[in-house]
């Protein structure tokens, strides 16, 4: 099951490497920076929407259906974009990659989550950490691969079209492994020294969004992701600005290395911290993400410009918490709401990601611009942003402290719903 | 003739190895490129 999940997440993680296509698209089709970013932005919006609204359908139809939809949408998105680039119709690229491909991103992202939790009920953090690590790893593969392809095919519109075509076909083949391999464990399958997989608290997705626990976790995820994006968004200019006036300034090449190192920390945090949560508990690990994350931001704000190793170390830890926050949330949801519709609940919670995707960069960019206008430079461009990030993490920390077990009135109790669980779980999709 | 219960389950190890190789090879390529780029922080 983990390779099946990875084949999907490693593919759709390509979304984070969209920036490789931006400069060629801008020169080939005469687009502005804002226009060339639109397919990616629409893709992320569609990811949130399709995960939120398609989650229940994914639970009902099963992971094989979901992975097939993800494969078809994600690959078709590239094929439509290839047609758009070949005919120089920019709107087709937005429609293809952004709208159609974005649906593939959302359905693909949640497709293996509940199945993995059902396969590894005693290690849900590790199980979802493996898959969600794949989403981080997808960009690591796609970024150099796409760049090399554009170098070979050329950066004009026909070269871009050919690159999109190869991407669409390659990802279809790669994701096919997931479709063919994915299996849901049987209900009767006993867990080692544990209860049957349908035992324990079970809450439907419809009931879950009516609980304060869901909204506390929504705030936790939103704050944690906003704080991580705050660094990720401006990593290269940030490290350059921080040490511009010192005896050891950071070159453009070294700044690119810093960004790559952050990607590694993001990916390692997904599997490492998420697996750790199986040992120390979900609430405790989020105390670390949010509490220690705030401390790291404080250290950067106070001493970051006086020590490069300290700045790099703190940024790496923050990014590892960012990745860990993404990967641990499905297991936290499973602890609170059970496995019944955990994928659908996770899908609804991903709207916090969409919100944070706007909130985090907005705060950092807006404040840096205002500080620059005020004549500030270097590390002082980011001081206020860091204070706000600490505030966001504290808000998230408080929200995490407010999480309590779900009230029994939200649990599945009606015989019809219980029958739904029994009917759904053994389905081998 | 043997009944079904006496048959051993098919060996799935080659399939599992193939599946891990399928996802592991591109990931290894991505990690290699990442390490190459990340070292620029200390050399660039």
Summarize this structure briefly.
The complex is a heterodimer of chains A (429) and B (44). With 429 residues, chain A is mainly alpha-helical.
Topology:
The complex is a heterodimer of chains A (429) and B (44).
Chain A lengths: L1 H11 L9 H8 L3 H29 L1 H24 L3 H21 L2 H7 L4 H30 L3 H25 L23 H4 L3 H21 L2 H8 L9 H29 L1 H22 L4 H30 L4 H8 L1 H23 L9 H19 L13 H10 L5
Helix pairs in contact in A: 1-7, 1-8, 2-3, 3-5, 3-15, 3-16, 4-5, 4-8, 6-7, 7-8, 7-12, 7-14, 10-13, 10-14, 10-16, 10-17, 11-12, 12-13, 12-14, 13-14, 13-17, 14-15, 16-17
Chain B lengths: L12 H26 L1 H4 L1
Description:
The complex is a heterodimer of chains A (429) and B (44). Chain A is mainly alpha-helical and 429 residues long. Chain A folds into two domains: 2-181, Growth Hormone, Chain: A (Up-down Bundle); 205-410, MFS general substrate transporter like domains (Growth Hormone, Chain: A), CATH 1.20.1250.20. Helix content of chain A is 77%, strand content 0%. Chain A contains 18 helices and no strands. Chain A has helices at 2-12, 22-29, 33-61, 63-86, 90-110, 113-119, 124-153, 157-181, 205-208, 212-232, 235-242, 252-280, 282-303, 308-337, 342-349, 351-373, 383-401, 415-424. In chain A, α10 packs across α16 (351-373). Chain A starts with a helix and ends in a 5-residue tail after the last helix. The longest helix of chain B is centred in the middle third of the chain and has 26 residues, at 13-38. The model of chain B has no long low-confidence stretch (mean pLDDT 78). Chain B has two helices and no strands. With 44 residues, chain B is mainly alpha-helical. The A-B interface holds A 3-4, 6-7, 10, 134, 137, 140-145, 174, 177, 181, 251-258, 260-261, 263-264, 312 and B 16, 19-20, 22-23, 26-27, 29-31, 33-34, 37-44.
